[in-house]
Structures are given as structure tokens and as C-alpha cells.
Specification:
- Helix content is 37%, strand content 14%.
- It is an alpha/beta fold.
- It has one domain: Tetrapyrrole methylase, N-terminal domain (Cobalt-precorrin-4 Transmethylase, domain 1), CATH 3.40.1010.10.
- Helix 2 packs across helix 3 (74-81).
Length: 273
């Protein structure tokens, strides 16, 4: 009964978000859009039974936020705490409805494996950072269940190096109310979006914890060094092994979906209400 009620509320909330992006976004400025996105994301977490535990007040505006990646809901958790622009793989733009919403809610799209397009995307991120807007990336390139931390791509940290803006590591974890790791939000392997959502709707309560580590200054540093430092800072915060000796992988694309996942599991930012 509780699961069915939550599912009904979720469907209505998604429709409100769609209407808001279509009808209200074109009439308001950036500050209002960010506020709407944050409010919509907070209501979504409430519907899903997720309690947000975050303290991001000290994060400097115009930061490149680097976070570990567990679930499709990560985007909304971060937006609920601090609305930001996200980087997503380019094919998300072609997904029905989802691509349309993503394009209108501060998503920067990157074609996988295209160095030329990566330069264009980096220029877009440069512009956002220089305008004092936060940009978030998931540099693992895929999701985990939260029990480990994969190596970080470094390519998308280049805009922070070029602009001199800080890199802000952000440790994300999902827990039960008594402090144990919750696997309910994990969107990994062969798990479908529907299965993941059903599992989350069946949980009484989930706590999403966001913990920033000290920001990393970028002048005079290379992206590989920053990627390793961000990785180790997040690993330390989560109590996971560091991996400073791991080599940087070649493609800097944060993907929000496991390989082969259905397109309904979008990594795009939330619509607003």
C-alpha cells in the first residue's frame, strides 16, 4: 500500500516538473530556476523516503564538484542540497522526454571518446565556472553499490585547471536510519531502473549523506594529480581504500547508467516544480 501510494505521488510529481520546465522556466532567470530545481529535488527525495543529511554551505560558488556515483538518484540528492549543472553522456540528449528535460536543466552533453568534442564541452564548463556556477561530474564513469570506489577519470577536471576554480570533492553514501550501508538505491549490473525504484519505494527510510572534503586548489596542478587527490579524499571520508597508484583512465566521461541500462534512468538534472 505504501509503495503504491509513493508511486502515484511520484508520477504526479514528474508531471508537475515537466509542466514547470515547459511553462515557467522560459519566464524566469537563472536564480529562480535553481531554486525551483532544488525544491523539486527535495520533494522527490521526500516521496522516495530519502532523508537528506548534507552540509554544503561552505562550498565556494563556481566549484567543480567531484562526487562518487551510486544511483540514478545521486543527481537529485546533490541538487536538493545545492543545485548545480551536470555533465552527461551525449546520447542522453536523444532520449524521449528525458533528453528534452536534461537540455533545459543545465546539462552539458559530452560525446564519449571524442577528444574534439571534449574540448568544446570543457569550454562550456569553463564558462559556467567563470560565471560563478557550480558544475558536478561523476568521474568514476559508472555506478557502484557504494562499497568500493573506482578510479577517477581526469579529463573533465581540466576546466578547473584552466579557470583556476577549486575542485570540491563530495562523498556520497546511502544508509539505513541506524547507520548501516543501504544497497536499495544502488543502480548497478543488471538492475533495471524499475527494479531499483521498486526497491527504494519499499524501504521505510533511507538517509543520503553528502560530506564535502577540503577543496583542492588548482593553480599549478595537473588534472591527473587532482583526480587522484579527489579520489583519495572521498575514499578517506567514506572509509574506503585509497587508490592513488591507479592510472588515469583515458576518457573523462561521467556516466550515470550501468552499461546497457535503459534510457529511462537519466543522469540529467531534475526538472523543477
Amino acid at each position: 500500500m505504501v509503495r503504491a501510494l509513493r508511486a502515484t505521488r511520484l508520477a504526479a510529481h514528474l508531471l508537475r516538473g515537466l509542466a514547470t520546465v515547459a511553462l515557467i522556466y522560459p519566464l524566469v532567470g537563472d536564480a529562480r530556476r535553481l531554486a525551483l530545481k532544488q525544491r523539486w529535488s527535495r520533494r522527490l527525495l521526500d516521496i522516495l523516503g530519502i532523508r537528506l543529511d548534507a552540509a554544503l554551505g561552505g562550498v565556494a560558488p563556481g566549484s567543480l564538484i567531484v562526487a562518487n556515483h551510486i544511483s540514478w538518484v545521486d543527481v537529485f540528492v546533490i541538487n536538493a542540497a545545492r543545485p548545480v549543472a551536470f555533465v552527461a553522456k551525449a546520447d542522453v540528449r536523444q532520449w524521449p522526454l528525458v533528453g528534452w528535460l536534461a537540455a533545459r536543466t543545465d546539462t552539458v552533453f559530452l560525446r564519449r571518446g571524442s577528444r574534439g568534442h571534449a574540448k568544446i564541452v570543457n569550454a562550456e564548463i569553463d564558462a559556467l565556472l567563470n560565471a560563478g556556477k557550480d558544475v558536478a561530474i561523476f568521474p568514476e564513469g559508472t555506478t557502484t553499490n557504494g562499497s568500493c570506489l573506482l578510479g577517477f577519470h581526469g579529463a573533465l577536471l581540466q576546466p578547473a585547471v584552466e579557470t583556476g576554480r577549486p575542485v570540491q570533492p563530495l562523498a556520497l553514501a546511502y544508509e539505513t536510519p541506524d547507520g548501516r550501508r543501504s544497497l536499495a538505491p544502488a543502480y548497478v549490473g543488471d538492475t533495471s531502473l524499475g527494479q531499483c525504484l521498486a526497491t527504494m519505494l519499499g524501504e521505510r527510510s533511507i538517509v543520503a549523506r553528502l560530506r564535502p572534503t577540503p577543496p583542492l586548489t588548482t593553480p599549478g596542478r595537473e588534472r591527473r594529480e587532482l583526480a587522484r587527490a579527489a579520489h583519495d579524499a572521498i575514499a578517506l571520508s567514506l572509509g574506503l581504500p585509497p587508490a592513488s597508484s591507479r592510472p588515469e583512465r583515458s576518457v573523462g566521461l561521467p556516466a550515470a547508467l550501468p552499461s546497457g541500462a535503459a534510457p529511462t534512468g537519466s543522469p540529467s538534472p531534475a526538472p523543477a516544480d
